[in-house]
């Protein structure tokens, strides 16, 4: 096998899978935190596998994933797709990520034929444009930063003032490379991006407590509302309304630069000190 330096890979390469057999794919993941496969990449690769079995005219509108075990970065991950249902308007897929004979992640994803309707949405929060926001001090991995560009609207160490909804933070994000002109490429890229700093939002008020932090994603859900490009700037607005019993809950919303609500994400995370 040819050795590739992952710090020079773009986002589309980080999400690429090798087809092995019908409904079976293989991928590799880079390190996240703490010293395990980055959960956003596992979820995005699982969605890539699911989308590879669905007609291109059906677009994913939601995914729900559970992190079962920490994944390794020195061993490939096998993604097994179950073609759960192909209906008149909706298609459902289930994916299990397997490593060393054990399930490490499970995903359910739903796809829909495009349909027109009336609309409403939340108003985009106020934020300076990306070119006026700060690159700041970033604690993401070098591989992640080689693929993703981040500009902070809020201080990455303290976040935004609590407005009664718990700790908050806000930043602009986009893929550094131009992505393919297919909706699946952009929703998979956004799934990867949606795991960046999301858990850290719940951690903001507790950063200075004593002990070694352990932060592990438990489950992750994303809803895709409107078309977007993940290689163009998106405002990622996050808040954490609850932390109790070592479990934190965080919500996030992605807005395009012209104010359209593109996607919403919710994550529950295990946070404790050792």
From TrEMBL:
Keyword Secreted (UniProt): no
Alphabetized UniProt keyword annotations: Hydrolase, Lipid metabolism
Any one GO molecular function term: fatty acyl-CoA hydrolase activity
Catalytic activity as recorded in UniProt: a fatty acyl-CoA + H2O = a fatty acid + CoA + H(+)
Residue span, Acyl-CoA thioesterase-like N-terminal HotDog domain: 32-112
Region (Disordered): 116-138
UniProt record, GO biological process: acyl-CoA metabolic process; fatty acid catabolic process
Sequence ranges assigned to domain Acyl-CoA thioesterase-like C-terminal in this UniProt record: 126-271
InterPro entries: ACOT8-like_C, Acyl-CoA_hotdog, Acyl_CoA_thio, HotDog_dom_sf, TesB_ACOT8-like_N
Family label: Belongs to the C/M/P thioester hydrolase family.
Quaternary organization: Homotetramer.
UniProt protein name: Acyl-CoA thioesterase 2
Biological source species: Amycolatopsis jiangsuensis
Lineage per the UniProt record: Bacteria, Bacillati, Actinomycetota, Actinomycetes, Pseudonocardiales
């Amino acid at each position: 096998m040819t050795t590739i330096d992952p710090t020079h890979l773009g986002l589309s390469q980080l999400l690429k899978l090798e087809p092995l057999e019908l409904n079976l794919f293989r991928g590799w993941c880079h390190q996240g935190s703490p010293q395990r496969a980055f959960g956003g990449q596992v979820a995005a690769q699982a969605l890539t596998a699911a989308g590879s079995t669905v007609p291109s005219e059906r677009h994913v509108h939601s995914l729900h994933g559970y992190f079962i075990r920490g994944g390794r970065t020195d061993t490939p991950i096998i993604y097994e797709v179950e073609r759960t249902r192909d209906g008149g308007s909706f298609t459902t897929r289930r994916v299990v990520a397997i490593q060393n004979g054990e399930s490490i992640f499970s995903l359910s994803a739903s796809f829909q034929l495009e349909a027109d309707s009336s609309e409403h949405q939340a108003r985009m929060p106020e934020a300076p444009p990306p070119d006026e926001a700060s690159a700041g001090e970033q604690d993401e991995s070098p591989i992640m930063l080689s693929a993703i560009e981040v500009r902070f609207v809020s201080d990455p160490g303290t976040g935004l003032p609590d407005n009664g909804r718990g700790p908050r933070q806000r930043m602009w994000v986009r893929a550094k490379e131009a992505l393919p002109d297919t909706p699946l490429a952009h929703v998979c890229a956004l799934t990867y991006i949606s795991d960046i700093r999301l858990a850290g939002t719940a951690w903001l008020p507790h950063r200075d407590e004593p002990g070694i932090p352990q932060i592990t994603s438990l489950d992750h859900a994303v809803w895709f509302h409107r078309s977007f490009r993940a290689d163009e700037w998106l405002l990622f607005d996050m808040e954490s309304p609850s932390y109790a019993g070592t479990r934190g809950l965080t919500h996030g919303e992605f807005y395009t630069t012209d104010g359209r609500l593109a996607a919403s994400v919710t994550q529950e995370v295990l946070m404790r000190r050792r």
